[in-house]
Amino acid sequence: MDGRHGTLNITNGGGFLVLATPESMFLAFDKDKNKILSQGELASSYDEIKRHIQNHVQLLDNDNNALRLEGIMLSLAPSNGEQGNSGRNLIILGRFALEQMPDELFLKITLGTKTQEDNYFEVEVTGNGYSQTMSFSSEKIRNRVINTIF
Predict the structure, then answer these.
(1) φ and ψ at 147, to 5 degrees?
(2) Neighbour count for residue 68 (Cβ, 10 Å)
């Protein structure tokens, strides 16, 4: 998967997320400060990184309540070599529980909000045979999921 891209598939009572994020967004967890997140650093900070992701990647209902991203799995992977992203990506996988569908759903991403470039993501949302492409930036951190998807 290309860096700064993801998918959210809404089906079977859940929203299943895959998001490729630049490794550079997680350098706060780089304990030896060599600007590379090692497997050991990822493992030793795993729970802290998961909490960080849960605070910055959220599915919100119409009352602005955050639905918790559960079952998070993380993996470091080489980027696809696209322009401007020669490093590695941290791949995030997880599930938002959607036992009861709210009237509205919003996806919110605030992983990197220091500059407009830091928080750029594109996410393809699918469900019920429909799809929607969402773009995120520091100025647009929240997008509404179209009702036909859920």
Answers:
(1) -60, -30
(2) 13
> Quick check: 88 and 78 in contact, CB under 8 A?
yes
- What's the predicted TM-score (pTM) here? 0.91
Within 23-141, strands assigned E span 57-61, 66-67, 69-78, 88-97, 105-109, 121-127, 130-136
User: Over its length of 150 residues, how does the chain's per-residue pLDDT go in tens digits?
Assistant: 788 999 999 999 999 999 999 998 999 999 999 999 999 999 999 999 999 999 999 999 999 999 999 999 999 998 875 544 457 999 999 999 998 888 999 999 998 756 555 679 999 999 999 999 999 998 899 999 999 998
Which strand ranges, in their side-by-side order, compose the sheet holding 14-22? Answer: 69-78, 88-97, 14-22, 5-11, 121-127, 130-136
Domain residue extents for the chain: 5-149
Phi, psi of 85 (to 5 degrees): -140, 75
